[in-house]
Recover the amino acids of this structure.
């Protein structure tokens, strides 16, 4: 047994002991929040069109989901109604370029965006993307991301929810309420995290890292 | 009986007839929405400091509450963190200057605003206001307005709510949910209207004029 496995084994035993002893409150109804600011994911072809042949993204900092990172690279979005500068690229690259904006940013660009799951891009809006080395006309791929909770299969068991299930999340405070239509997304590579956009964060006065109540 | 009174009398009789016949559904749980964009109310002293001695507001258009109007006049708000131009003045004048912003606008200005009822301004944030003829340092008066429903005493009876009562409003749709902590405001001069700010409208994908369900 190597050092890493030993640590995991000890952690597991401690957790078991705590659970058995009743010292650990099994509070499987709270989820931590990550507020997603506007951003885009690029495919290799679009990255090269915007930043140059053979270009590679530079990691700025890791973000909540394992393996994902905010890149140093930024682009500008342009429509005939307006533009938004400094849209950050998230890495790593994806098979298809996807831009995630809020309703308020959609207004700035005069776009009538649909609320979609990540990756569900058929017949969504397009936009002009401008990078330091060139521009592209994205035909589709601009969405308002749906509210969703990332979790592992173990989390799903603990919270008693299933992949794809719609749940609600309760927010307290002076502008509290309920966020409905929150999609559960289960994957062994995920880390427990409730993703909302900046419009939701501002409307409900939610801060990054807040613990909110999941209701079914 | 003059023409106006005659019309009112006929309308009243038709309504009575519809109610008696059961043809009219008494749906006292829906409220129409008015989305309030950022704005300010000025006292006479501040109006003159910003626009000049003896200045009077110009009506641009009437707004939902009787006697209230959007003025043509606009100002700029300035802090050491940022500025927002084109903040519209609403008329008529008030006893105390009050500025209503959203959380997202508060972020732009680096202000940590409180959610308050209109008029409840003690110990709220200040800001620099710049007009065409001068600037003032507002000591307090910048708030995030609480969610509220204007209604007449007759409406209050129909909806079975009281002045000051907190209710919730349900929103359907892909970014639906519940808006909590909505204050009922009753006054004979009011018109039935649910006032939310642009952050709430954007987060819930609510449009001006939407009919939403009030729940107690």
């Amino acid at each position: 047994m190597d050092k890493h496995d030993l640590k995991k084994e000890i952690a597991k035993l401690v957790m078991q002991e705590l659970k058995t002893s009743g010292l650990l409150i099994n509070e499987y109804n709270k989820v931590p929040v990550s507020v997603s600011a506007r951003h885009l994911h690029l495919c290799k072809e679009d990255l090269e069109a915007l930043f140059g042949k053979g270009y590679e993204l530079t990691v700025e900092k890791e973000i909540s989901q394992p393996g994902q990172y905010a890149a140093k690279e930024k682009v500008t979005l342009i429509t005939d109604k307006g533009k938004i500068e400094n849209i950050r690229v998230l890495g790593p690259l994806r098979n298809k370029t996807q831009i995630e904006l809020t309703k308020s940013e959609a207004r700035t660009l005069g776009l009538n965006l649909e609320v979609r799951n990540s990756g569900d891009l058929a017949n969504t809006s397009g936009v002009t993307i401008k990078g330091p080395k060139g521009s592209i006309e994205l035909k589709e791929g601009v969405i308002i991301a749906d509210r969703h909770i990332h979790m592992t299969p173990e989390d799903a068991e603990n919270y008693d929810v299933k992949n794809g299930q719609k749940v609600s999340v309760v927010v307290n405070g002076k502008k509290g309420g309920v966020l409905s239509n929150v999609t559960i997304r289960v994957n062994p590579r995920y880390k427990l995290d409730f993703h909302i956009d900046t419009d939701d964060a501002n409307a409900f006065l939610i801060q990054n890292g807040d613990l909110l109540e999941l209701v079914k």
Notes: Chain B has five helices and 14 strands.
